[in-house]
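Quarterly update from the structural biology core.
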Amino acid sequence: MRRTMSKHGGCAIAAVVVAFSSGVPSHAMADTVGSVRVLPKMEWECGSTGSFTVVYTVGPDGVPAGGSVGIAFKHAIEIGLGTNPDGVGYVKTLRSSGAELPVRLKGGRFVYPEQGQPANSKPQNAIVRKAVFADVGDSPLKPGEEVRFVFGANSKGIELPLNVCVDPIRAVVDPEGDGTYSIVPFIPSFRLVARPADHLFVTIPSTRRVGESADICIRAEDPANNLATSFNGEVVLTGMPGCGASKVQMKAGLGRIDLPVKGTGVVRVSVGGHGMSASSNPMVIQDASVPYGVYWGDLHGHTFESDGLGGDAEYYYRTARDAADLDVCASADHGPRMKSKEATRKLNEPGRFVTIWGYEWAESQPGRLDWNIYFRDEDDPVPAGWPQTIEGFWSSIEKLYGDNADRRVIVGPHMFTYPTKCRPWYENWNDRYCRFVEIYSEHGMSEYNGNPRMLAKGNVQPGFFMQDGLAAGCHFGILGSSDTHDSRAGRGSNSLIHHGGLVAFLAKDLTRESIWDAWWNRRFYAASNERIFIDFKINGHLMGEEITTDGAPRIAYTVYGCSKPFDVILLRNNKELKRTTSTGGSVTEDFSDTGFDSSANYYLRVVESEGEFAWSSPIWVNE
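Predicted structure, tokenized:
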């Protein structure tokens, strides 16, 4: 059921009581730690303002003096909690008697054990970010007594996150008063749903040949780019050569149509209806002699299998394929999750959708620095244990794969400019395995110090950026991905600071073998959100290659934007060499670099007028 109410320009929201998703709790545990429920029972719209109450009912053993009860929100949920009675997000706690309990807020990343597991097990899906604790004080809580956590306990209410999610709440209790918490086995399924449709978004394949067909996807989205599942209706698509106007029936925010490809050149389709309109990314109709097509993917996402929100790995993949219109998707939960592995195997469909299994590992000694590892096959062996150092990480992989001569494993760093006590990632580079850096994700951008969309609003460490790695002599491709924590890869993922990024593969076809070949050979490029088309060559060689030249290198590139003015910047050794502003939605350059001096790396940066970006992988040139 969904209910809305007029309150400070927002809508009230939703919640229903369900069994905790990690399994049915034992009666003994339920009897020991009590239960929780949410009032009122209704769905909340993302970004709305209102109030809700989480009610904890004390179990038969009670909670002694000195104990406490906490309500926490899972990782990736940004929600403002406060203790100011006159502020937004004010939270107060009440006993059954009506007496208030002291409120204590806790922020940062911390973990509580899941139900049925010992207190020291600390699995990843217990990670939470913010919590409210009610301290019992000198008067113990009696069996059957209630503690009410009122979120938005004044006229200003509480502002809810912008991202769609299910089940972000955890309830914990200290039943012995010794500081050891247990998860409460029944928790509310706190459901945030998209707002009404605000705009349309349409994607079309970036490359096709005459005689093929183009599967076109139309999304109705809310202001935060969530899929507006309440939208149903007809829209009209135009701009496909030889096809005229086509009616598309939208259902639950999505519409698809498959149209034949005719003619040559660059195609952008348009869609309109219900007072909304949108234009697509460019589709380049290629000659049969062009060996590679462009396929879009997201290689970094987290699901409920680890510390994500929403669904499991199957849900994650299906959403990427059907709602985000991706060609390629990889899972990268924290640690090797077997359910994610099996979902990867099940959902891989050559010619339609390519899945790749991997996981995220964190160097925790002497600090934190994250790397992602991917496997060519689901049955490839996984390193045992959880190394704390980068040396241990490489040792564990090399024990299984040696020099990786058959290219079964691909590794690369992400989120690599956050402050850490670790050495810069490029000092631990291993060419036998490392093929990429993740330049952009929901955390932000890591191209150079001072670039737009800095990680955590400027909380970065100089000397750790992508350009620093190039200057140090590392060879890598540049990709973008989301690092989504709401189980929604690709378009609409917005569970952290920014919206997610994308990667475009230049591959022979849509199979895992071809995508893996493109990945290994650094034949891919990054985008922050828009499906920009980039064709970048030096002396006829593609991005990602290492080449030699007898004279001035011949540089040629063509970029098609998404119907917006944009600049294309060519960088040589991290310095701007040439800047071109688009004309008619495209940039084409072909010239010799007479300033070349024995050795250089080159890459492209694309900057659209509305603030979206793309980056080619580099090309390395030596005499």
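DSSP finds six helices and 48 strands in the chain.
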